[in-house]
Amino acid sequence: MSGHRAIIEVGPGEIRRLCCGPSMAADADADASEIRDAALHAIDDCVGLVEGRPVAVDALWSAALRSLDCATDGAGNGTVVVHPSWWSSSRVGVVTGAAKSMPGDVSVRPRSWLLSQASNADPEAMVVVEIAERVVAIVGAETVGVPRGVEQDLVAEEVATVIGEMSSGTTAVVLIDVPSTVAEASGLAAAIASEVRKSGQRAMEIDAARLSRLAASARTALPNRGESSQRESAASARGVRSPRPMLRGLAAAAVVFAAVAPVVIGAGGRGVAPPTTAPTTFLVEGRVALTVPAYWTAQRVLAGPGSARVQVTSPADPEAALHVTQSPVPPDETMGVTADRLQRAIGSEPDGVFVDFNPSGISAGRPAVTYREIRASHQVRWTVVVDGPVRISIGCQSRPGGEDKVRDVCEQAVRSAHTIR
Questions:
Q1: Shortest CA distance to 383 belongs to which of 374, 401, 391, 371?
Q2: pLDDT in tens, 49-71
Q3: Three-state DSSP class for residue 238
Q4: Strand pairing partners for 283?
Q5: Residues 192, 176 contacting (CB under 8 angstroms)
Q6: What is the phi/psi pair of residue 98, to 5°?
Q7: 239 in the Ramachandran plot: left (φ > 0), alpha (ψ -120 to 50) or beta?
Q8: Cβ distance 94 to 137 under 8 Å?
Q9: Sheet holding 297-301: strands in order across?
Q10: CB distance 86 to 255 below 8 Å
């Protein structure tokens, strides 16, 4: 195939056509716009809402992408769908599945592929910086996530430090994405560019208008970094890792990352080495973030015994799992008050279901309320901590006698669990 291919952007804040023939009429369709918004907001769920009606997310995404189909605009060379480079494999899987429903030749590539076309530098000498609402992703030899904290200058310093460590002084150009849909992205991009230039490196800021121009001239018919670069393929497979210990207690990233042997953030904001080098995922649910195994399956559980929760299950054993629940608490709530609340709730349950209640326990080095839940086919060891305005409960499930198989996973989750502020 030769010639230009249409490009559709999915995320970080919208689904839109970056370039596609002479007509952009589809973008003005209010119904299609609502479907695209619903698809993006529900990408981590099974069902989304359109006009109050539940719609399967796979169907939503297929409809969203088809609403931007360029076949009628004379762009007959196919379509490229670009997604944030830091998106989890599950999100990319949703997009890829939906892309298969589009007519013609469709490929799915990371956003860094398009951004990298702003420079003629050797791909090995490029670093792409993607700014999202709560994280800055640095895409180079690997992908590193830096949480966005309140102090913009501190985030910029941390990003520049990571780039320096990643490139070892060999980076020719740093390409900084400035998406119009992300709050304060322009100011943060400028701060990052300034910090990068202090170290003698080149920095190039790419705003929405420039991204559209890149899309219009993109070399989509040629081999690209998304397909031909072993480095990018490896980074995509690994996903995003957390950087070295965050400086000055930066808040955690509110995204789902894949990671390899990350440094995770404990309740005090200090980096803590994980107990295992198995691939992990930085899971975010509501206002809580924590580290879980990368290849375990996460799902929301709304029915059955216990509170609504996220369950993360081992692919090797359905009885090996983590459970995560959260509840808002008054800012001044102490562990003693939390223990009293839990003890009253547990007291209303049948005898023998909840045992070993300890109001002053220690779990993974953190003060916690601990207890054990006994079920027919498994047991769950619960750890409850309070981090600011949120009570976080982490349940470590295993078969009877199989506690050792989830011990490291459990400790890692408890150690890393914290509130996103």
A1: 371
A2: 888 788 888 999 999 999 887 65
A3: helix
A4: 290
A5: yes
A6: -70, -35
A7: left
A8: no
A9: 297-301, 309-313, 321-328, 390-398, 379-387, 366-374, 354-363
A10: yes
* pLDDT at residue number 20: 64
Helices (H), 239-355: 335-347
Q: Cα 232–238–239 angle (5° rounding)? A: 80
Residue 146 scores a pLDDT above 50: yes
pLDDT band at residue 303 using 50, 70 and 90 as cut-offs: low
What's the rounded Cα separation, in Å, for the pair 188 and 180? 12
What one-character-per-residue DSSP string does 127-184 give?
EEEEE-SSEEEEESSSEEEEE--S-HHHHHHHHHHHHHHHHTT---EEEEEE-TTSTT
For residue 316, count other CB atoms closer than 10 A to its CB: 9
User: Which amino acid, one-letter code, is at 104?
Assistant: G
Cis peptide before 12 (omega within 30 of 0): yes
Cα(410)–Cα(397) distance, integer angstroms: 9
What's the pTM? 0.59
Q: Do the beta carbons of residue 128 and residue 116 sit within 8 Å?
A: yes
* Angle, helices 57-66/30-41, rounded to nearest 10 degrees: 140
